[in-house]
Write a structure and sequence with these properties.
Layout (H helix, E strand, L loop, with lengths): L1 E3 L7 E3 L17 H5 L7 E3 L2 H10 L3 E6 L4 H11 L2 H10 L1 E6 L4 H15 L6 E5 L5 E5 L13 H14 L1 H20 L11 H14 L16 H14 L2 H16 L13 E2 L7 E2 L2 E2 H18 L2 H17 L10 E2 L2 E2 L2 E2 L5 E2 H12 L1 H10 L8 E2 L6 E5 L7 H8 L3 H19 L7 E2 L2 E2 H18 L2 H17 L8 E5 L2 E5 L2 H18 L2 H18 L32 H16 L2 H13 L1 H6 L5 H11 L3 E7 L4 H12 L5 E7 L6 H10 L14 E6 L2 E2 L6 H8 L1
Parallel strand pairs: 3-5, 4-5, 21-22
Antiparallel strand pairs: 1-2, 4-6, 6-7, 8-9, 10-11, 11-17, 12-13, 14-16, 15-16, 18-19, 19-20, 21-23, 23-24
């Protein structure tokens, strides 16, 4: 049976109508990416000792291929090379072939991606590695077609060459493999713990100035094409503006996020953001959608709304949450990983529109005037703006995008803004209803702990700031799922759940990102249960992943011995690095609980990161977010009172409405108030709150700044004055 998703993103079973072919070992796996290759003629193995034992016994090198389910070029290489019987014959004769899902095993991917970058100067997926039976890589590359073309060597030429090297130049091959792993180890020694000094405010300033120098004032963003969302850069810039009183940070963030929302990188029909833009205008995306992008971008739009009050930014955050709830949430409440770029055998087919189809859908339902408005608003052309990947010629299909706001369109047409907005929403609804009849892209329905942690943080934070209880409830359901279902027999956290199975030991990023989400859930609910769970995750993180010699956290714990190098992730890529996330949550939890031990670990990590962060601040912007919090001025506020009383709600609402990235807030129900048990539970996690109670029968705020406490405040204005 295969799984087919109907409207709403859920899964249902249907008969498997594919031609019957013999499956390989990957058919027993849970990863959607590995299952995509289960009927290849290649004799694939999953990563494991069975493959390496056979490699040693038969004296054959390992052909390692790493990718992920929604990777477009992984699909292309599968179709061109791994489904080809001639390529498969060479692989099966001369190599032992292993497939790895990089999202299931980021630790394996991290080691061999570093190898590829060191050997070739670049990286990407699909990642192709050839190595000895002892996991020593002597060849690295990315995508290889079946036959050599346009200067790129094909598999039919490459594989015999590699086999010849293995047979005839064994000593050179083994020396190259050993040298490659040694180079990876040397990269590690130049990372955490290698620099002197301590990152300080000047480090933040240099990070800001670097981003300012790279900023595109016309389209936003900080790089040439292709353009990837880098929301941790935006989160840092918002903090810098708040710290320095420099509006340019907010201006860069706003320009970038507004341009992205208008561009084709945003799905104007079903919402959510695609992975990246292939051009500098945010117009032509790579159409896959990833959970982590939705989470981090939702955080950025939410914080920007807090600062500017512009309703447009809150609307985008809500649109992201709507997309995730509809299409990336499974029945138990956890969040699914991604949607593919491809459907009907080509990239973007699900998302693009011809002028004729748009005119038919909109014109038949609403008339020619509405169709004309839709064409203008979404920039729909008869010749199209989307080119065929192979020929480069326009297909007559359009990627919907905006060049004018509804207000600008209304002014040009002499209409009311609300009239235009309502008309465009009706157009969007009609297009959505038509689009659900198309063949959908693959849904990668695995559940990953670290990515869920990020979305839990985003939804809980959005629910708190927007006063949207259903968002908070959705975040709590996902957290309950992870905490209850992704555990092993020893109650240790696991990384992946799919098809009823939880497996793969969790890494440092899983612990840190989930703790981040639980901290945000506490701030949205005031339920100390979430703080207690977050503290347990941090204790486990520090016990199993912390490096007592050079500090920082390893990606995997010491018990996981199937990777040849135990790395520490520092660079902030598509997601925050494990060490940046760890630093951030150590600071958050330390200040919430008053635990100086956690703050001391955070300070050790700050010093350990001096080399990489100080050397290239703008490449480590999640670390800069943590550094901003570490430098302060940081505030802790304990509000105590009757949770149902108006004066309590006023104090808490004032803190919620305020953009306060360096403010930790706790709520303690007053003695005898409803929720009294929560006060005892909070004191168990944050003992210093035990001494706090209401003053003169009124809800009271206790404000401390950089370990110095102010007098208790019962008035909102006084409390905010103390914070400012």
């Amino acid at each position: 049976m295969i799984q087919v998703r109907p409207l709403g993103g859920q899964l249902m079973s249907g008969p498997d109508l594919r031609p019957q072919r013999r499956s390989n070992r990957l058919a027993r796996e849970k990863s959607p990416y590995l299952l995509q290759h289960a009927f290849n003629p290649v004799d694939w193995y999953p990563w494991g000792e069975e493959a390496f034992e056979r490699s040693r016994a038969e004296d054959r090198p390992i052909f390692l291929s790493i990718g992920y389910a929604t990777c477009h070029w992984c699909h292309v290489m599968e179709h061109e090379s791994f489904e080809d019987t001639d390529v498969a014959a060479l692989l099966n004769r001369d190599f032992i072939s292993i497939k790895v899902d990089r999202e299931e095993r980021p630790d394996i991917d991290g080691v061999y991606m570093t190898v590829c970058q060191l050997m070739t100067g670049q990286g990407g997926w699909p990642l192709t590695i050839v190595m000895t039976p002892d996991k020593q890589p002597f060849f690295a590359g990315t995508y290889f077609p079946r036959e050599s073309v346009a200067g790129r060597m094909g598999m039919l030429e490459l594989l015999p060459r590699l086999d010849g090297m293995w047979r005839e130049r064994r000593a050179d091959v083994e020396a190259a493999g050993a040298s490659a792993l040694q180079a990876v180890r040397e990269v590690e020694t130049r990372g955490i713990g290698s620099g002197g000094g301590t990152p300080d405010e000047e480090t933040l300033r240099r990070g800001f100035n670097d981003l300012l120098a790279r900023f595109d004032p016309h389209q936003g963003g900080f790089s040439r094409a292709p353009r990837f969302p880098a929301p941790h850069q935006l989160l840092f810039l918002l903090r810098w503006s708040d710290r320095a009183g420099d509006p340019r940070g907010v201006e860069m963030v706003e320009k970038t996020l507004v341009s992205m929302r208008r561009g084709g990188i945003f799905d104007h029909v079903g919402y959510g953001f695609h992975r990246y833009s292939t051009d500098a205008r945010w117009l032509v995306p790579h159409f896959e959608k990833m959970l982590y992008d939705q989470a981090l971008l939702a955080m950025a739009y939410t914080e920007l709304w807090q600062i500017t009050g512009d309703e447009a930014h809150r609307r985008v955050a809500r649109e992201i949450f709507e997309y995730v709830a509809r299409d990336l949430t499974e029945a138990g409440g956890a969040f699914l990983s991604a949607e593919d770029a491809d459907s009907e055998g080509r990239e973007g087919a699900f998302y693009v529109w011809t002028r004729e189809e748009l005119d038919e859908v909109v014109g038949n339902a609403l008339g020619e005037e509405a169709a004309r408005l839709a064409r203008r608003a979404f920039q729909v052309e008869a010749r199209g703006n989307f080119a065929d990947e192979a020929s480069g010629l326009r297909t007559g299909e359009n990627i919907l995008h905006l060049r004018e706001t509804p207000a600008e369109i209304a002014a040009a047409l002499g209409e009311e803004v609300t009239t235009v907005e309502e008309s465009l929403e009706e157009v969007r609804r009609l297009l959505f209803e038509r689009r659900v009849t198309r063949i959908r892209p693959l849904l990668d329905d695995k559940i990953l702990t670290d990515w869920n942690g990020l979305m839990i943080a985003a939804m809980a934070g959005g629910g708190r700031v927007f006063g949207d209880e259903p968002l908070v409830e959705a975040a709590a359901r996902a957290a309950d799922f992870i905490l209850e279902r992704l555990r092993d027999e020893d109650a240790r956290l696991l990384h992946r759940h799919r098809d009823g199975e939880s497996a793969i030991p969790a890494g440092a990023a899983d612990h840190a990102c989930l703790a981040w989400g639980l901290i945000e859930l506490y701030a949205a609910t005031w339920d100390p249960h979430w703080l207690r769970e977050a503290r347990g995750l941090l204790d486990e993180l520090l016990e199993r992943f912390w490096d007592p010699d050079r500090h920082g956290v390893f990606n995997v714990d010491a018990e996981q011995r199937d990777v040849p190098v135990r790395q520490k992730e520092v660079y902030d890529g598509a997601t925050p690095s494990a060490n940046a996330a760890t630093w951030y949550v150590l600071l958050r939890m330390g200040r919430l609980t008053g635990d100086l031990g956690l703050l001391d670990r955070a300070e050790s990590l700050r010093r350990a990161l001096a080399g990489p962060v100080g050397g290239a601040p703008s490449a480590h912007t999640m670390s800069l977010v943590a550094l901003d919090l570490a430098l302060g001025p940081a505030h802790e506020v304990v509000v105590t009172g009757d949770p149902d009383a108006a004066d309590t709600q006023c104090l808490l609402a004032a803190l919620t409405d305020r953009y306060g990235p360096r403010t930790a807030v706790l709520f303690k129900p007053a003695d005898g108030a409803a929720g009294g048990r929560a006060a005892a539970d909070l004191e168990a996690v944050a003992p210093f709150t035990g001494a706090y109670d209401v003053r003169d029968g009124r809800a009271t705020a206790y404000v401390c700044s950089d370990f110095a406490c102010r007098r208790p405040a019962t008035d909102v204005a006084e409390m905010l004055n103390q914070l400012s």
